[in-house]
Amino acid sequence: MAVDREPVDFALPEEPRFAALHRLFAGRPATILAVVVVVLFVAVALLAPWIAPYDPLAQSYLRINAYPSAEHWLGTDQFGRDVLSRLLYGARNSLIFGLISPVLAAIVGTALGVTAGYFGGIVDRAATRVIDLLLAFPELLLAIMIAAALGGGFWNVVFVIAVAFVPGFARVARASTLAVKQEPYIEASVAVGLSTRRIIWRHVLPNISAPVVVLMTLWVASAIRLEASLSFLGIGTQPPQPSWGNIIRDGLGNIFGSPWPIIGAGFAITVVVLAFNVLGDAVRDLLDPETA
Amino acid sequence: MLRVIGSRLVDAVPTILLVLTLVFITLRVLPGDPALVALGDYATAEQLALFRRQMGLDIPIWQQYFVFIWDMLTLDFGQSLINRTPVVQLIGENLPYTIELTLVATGMGLVTGIPLGVMAAVWRNRLPDTGVRLFSLVGYAIPDFYLGALLLIVFALNLGWFPINGGGTGFLDRMYHIFLPALTLAMVKSAFIGRLTRTSLLEVLGRDYVRTARAKGAREPRVIFRHGLRNALLPITTGLGLSLLATLSGSVAIELVFNRPGIGEVLISAIAKRDYPVIQAGVVVFAFFVVLVNLLVDLAYSVIDPRIRVR
After folding, report:
1. What is the ipTM of this complex?
2. B240: pLDDT strictly greater than 90
3. Quick one: pLDDT band at residue B112, thresholds 50, 70, 90?
4. Residue B146: which of A145, A151, A248 has the nearest Cβ?
């Protein structure tokens, strides 16, 4: 007998456009604020040469240690350099390190982790042992130790920060690869004779990308902080090139002159790191709800 | 218990060798010639050769490796290039200040952080919880050296309540000198411990045995402290180990801010003066500390959680 049935609609309910963005921001005013701060920070970093009122390196002994005024919003330092201009250029420095180092660490760490996790065996055991050991070191300590051996300079600092982050990426990538390897689609890929390279590029990497991306966003903040700390210690960005860290270092040497460089630069680091942390948490909640 | 300690100590031996190997690779094998680092770009070929011979850098790399491991294990760190002081003596004089700072800061951080975390967990999503969350957000973001500089400007420079620099002599004076630096590190740590305590206590308070304890009529403080906090201590211990090391690395910058003697100050000024033997020793001492703290955390586990002893 014939039964009347409603035609079954197999199509998934259509996701409204920008649904992901909506989920990222809905009911989270802190995230919106964080995005505003991050956008401002990036804009300032990119536009520094056009919006800075003075040359950040121009010294003038006629106006040393000036307090904030209409001409110098944040005053001047012991060499008569405009503090605001130095902060704006410092944003540029922070942005460069904040982006390059986590990306570099993500590439190297993921390569290591996937290799160890996918192939297993003695390589995996050796890699895991070293990674576990390095993870026992706080990033700053690891960075100080490597910087001690290498000295300062732009690429050395990029390298130092990247190395400090590699173990974390390697561990996450390895764990995710181990999980993905158990999936039936990998078994199927092996069964139909796909090459190992193709399996890793087409099936493993896309499926472990979420936790890696989450870690990368969380570590933009750490990289900015780490660069500031190293520059503060004198083993990061070298003066006279302005970095938020070495502005505070210079400020401490001139603490009886003017506290404004310290107050300004430290405030900038705190606000930007805070914003990237909040944003990183939001991205994590979106991409990787399990670890939230 | 003795057997546990013994076996952990035995486990630590290969770890120490591995750490020393990694330090050796960083210092000697990575690009970056130690002779050039020590003498600068303008050194002549003869000066470089002389330095390499003095430091034992002219023998094959595998021989250097064994000499390095042996020297480090026997604490033979050589002499400072600047003033010929034995490096061991330099470290011995400065290490107590760093340990003192790390321990006092950790103590202050624990004493404030755990109650904050308990409050946040008990009054979840209410005012204390929001306050603790804000505090820890800022605590995660603010660089410790900036916080230290602010405290220095306000309390030492403007109000004159605390000394501006130095380590102090005699117990009371030392505690007076340590207060601001330790407070700086403790505030950052307190944010971390508070958040950690909140998370792990909330997890434990959701367990069945806590419900049972409440059902049989145990009073709320007893439930929270005896049933809750005691079981929440394990993840806190892990976090504490890591945060002890974070405080140790933070102390490097804090010693600079407050102009305190200490191992971090030694290492940083050695880097500035390119004093290679001191740099090498400083790096090794920090590495030893990492191994030591991890060992202690491991041992603390078996004290806190008897289940781990039988394994």
Report:
1. 0.83
2. no
3. very high
4. A248
Q: Is the pLDDT of residue A161 over 50?
A: yes
Structure tokens at A120: 């297993």
Cβ-Cβ contacts under 8 Å between A and B: the total is 127
Supply A139's token pair. Answer: 């990033």
Mutate which: B145, B158, B291, vs A, most A CBs within 10 A: B145
pLDDT per residue over A238-258, tens digit each? 888 888 988 889 888 888 878
Comparing CB atoms, the residue among B32, B145, B294 nearest residue A136 is B294
Instruction: Compute the average pLDDT of residues A154-169.
Output: 88
CB–CB of A248/B253 below 8 Å? no
At position B208, the amino acid (one-letter code) is: D
Distance CA A225, CA B135 (A): 18
Q: What is the average per-residue pLDDT within A158-187? A: 89
User: B282 to chain A nearest CA, in Å?
Assistant: 9
3-state DSSP of B252-275: HHHHHHCCCCCHHHHHHHHHHHCC
Q: Which amino acid is at A49?
A: P
A144 contact residues in B (CB cutoff 8 A): 249, 252, 267, 286
Per 3-state DSSP, chain B is made up of helix, strand and coil in percentages (nearest 5) of 80, 0, 20
Put simply, the answer to whether A229 touches B282 (Cβ < 8 Å) is no
- Residue A142: CB atoms within 10 A of its CB come to 27
Q: How many residues does chain B have?
A: 311
Look at residues B113, B115, B183 and name the one whose alpha carbon lies nearest to residue B154.
B183
The residue of chain A with its CA nearest to that of B133 is A278
Q: Angle formed by the axes of helices B263-273 and B230-257, to 10°?
A: 40
Spatial CA neighbour of B76 closest among B91, B95, B61, B63: B91
Mean predicted confidence (pLDDT) in A131-153: 81
Total Cβ atoms within 10 A of residue B11: 11
CB contact under 8 A, B249 and A138: yes
3-state secondary structure A176-206: HHHHHHCCHHHHHHHHCCCCHHHHHHHHHHH
Strand, coil or helix: A63? coil
Test B290 with A228 for CB contact under 8 angstroms.
no
CA distance from start to end of chain B: 12
Helix (H, G, I), strand (E, B) or coil at A57: coil
In chain A, positions 246-265, which contact chain B (CB-CB < 8 Å)?
A: 248, 251-252, 255-256, 259, 262-263, 265
Say if the Cβ atoms of A136 and B286 lie within 8 Å.
Answer: no
Cβ pair B138:A270 closer than 8 A:
yes
Pairwise CA distance, residues B36 & B219, whole Å? 68
What value does the mean pLDDT take over residues B159-167?
76
